[in-house]
User: Fold this.
Amino acid sequence: MSHTAQAQMNTTAKSATGEFDSGLFDCTSNLSTCVVAWFCPCVVYGQNQAALQNGDGCFMSGLLYTCAAGFGFHSCMGAYGRGIVRKDRGIDGGFVGDCLSHYCCYPCALTQEHAELVKAGKK
Assistant:
């Protein structure tokens, strides 16, 4: 593959608007992921992180999320993962906003991140 073609693929993998393509509360558009995120957020978090790491780390990422949640820090761990998704997709934002997204509605935030990775072809 030529360098130009590879650069074009990398460009198309980024968000065109600098924002998530779906809204935070559009989580019902992917109901199965939303339900899993509601009852077992560690699974969706682990899958999202594994997609960003080429399939590696699903179990460990999920386990770390579970441990963080056990101590009441699920929003911080979720914000960390959301930051990685934002950086990978070229989406604007910061840690505080990510933390609030996960604190207020972690299933919606995880589903939104999942949808972004699906759109990027990483899942």
